[in-house]
């Protein structure tokens, strides 16, 4: 027996079947849009050539406005009251996604609040992970371990832009110039 490291069999692209297999009613409404604290999170997904990706699905996970991570079930059946911190949205033919959510709070004092994002799209062998940081707390952003590990231009690509209406804009670029920084977890093999 050798000490040779074996490489896992690569994943296979599935789809694009997302449009009928994964969405459910209200999947992008983590909170009802008419709720006083509701914030619209929106943006576009682009491929390496800068063209919109029309058949992707995004999932987001986040704490509530106080930084509490929800342990409530019921993400697939919205009741209009229970905050689960989870949502899913298929992009439209122009590559646009929209969520109705809350500004997440920091999970610890002094930490930068963020929303975790998972991207599923045609041509991806495995899903991609990234984060969306809120732009306001510059001190917490400067101290964030992930953001601090990136150069300035990469760091800026993980921070949403706040609109005059309070909305958050975050575009995702899968490859090429201005590619969104994606996370690699220890369980991900080369």
TrEMBL record:
Q: Which Gene3D superfamilies match?
A: Aromatic compound dioxygenase (2.60.130.10)
Span of domain Intradiol ring-cleavage dioxygenases = 37-106
In terms of InterPro entries, this protein maps to: Intradiol_dOase_C, Intradiol_dOase_core, Intradiol_RC_Dioxygenase, Protocat_dOase_a
Give the E.C. number(s). Answer: 1.13.11.3
Going by the UniProt record, its keywords in alphabetical order are: Dioxygenase, Oxidoreductase
Q: Which GO terms describe its molecular function?
A: ferric iron binding; protocatechuate 3,4-dioxygenase activity
User: Where does the source fall among the domains of life?
Assistant: Bacteria
Asked if Oxidoreductase is a keyword of the record, the answer is yes
What does the sequence similarity comment in the record state about its family? Belongs to the intradiol ring-cleavage dioxygenase family.
Name of this protein: Protocatechuate 3,4-dioxygenase subunit alpha
Q: Which organism is it from?
A: Brevibacterium aurantiacum
User: Quick one: which gene encodes this?
Assistant: pcaG
């Amino acid at each position: 027996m050798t000490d040779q490291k074996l490489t896992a069999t690569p994943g296979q692209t599935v789809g694009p079947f997302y449009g009928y297999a994964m969405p459910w009613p209200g999947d992008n409404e983590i909170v009802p849009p008419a709720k006083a604290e509701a914030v619209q999170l929106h943006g576009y997904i682009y491929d390496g050539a800068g063209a919109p990706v029309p058949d992707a699905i995004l999932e987001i996970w986040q704490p509530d406005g106080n930084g509490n991570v929800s342990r409530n079930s019921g993400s697939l059946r919205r009741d209009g009251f229970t905050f689960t911190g989870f949502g899913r949205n298929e992009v439209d033919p122009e590559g646009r996604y929209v969520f109705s959510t809350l500004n997440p709070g920091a999970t610890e004092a002094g930490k930068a609040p963020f929303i975790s994002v998972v991207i599923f799209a045609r041509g991806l062998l495995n899903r991609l992970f990234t984060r969306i940081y809120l732009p306001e707390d510059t001190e917490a952003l400067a101290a964030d371990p992930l953001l601090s590990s990136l150069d300035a231009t990469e760091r800026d690509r993980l921070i949403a832009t706040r609109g005059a209406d309070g909305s958050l804009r975050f575009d995702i670029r899968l490859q090429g110039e201005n590619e969104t920084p994606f996370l690699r977890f220890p369980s991900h093999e080369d």
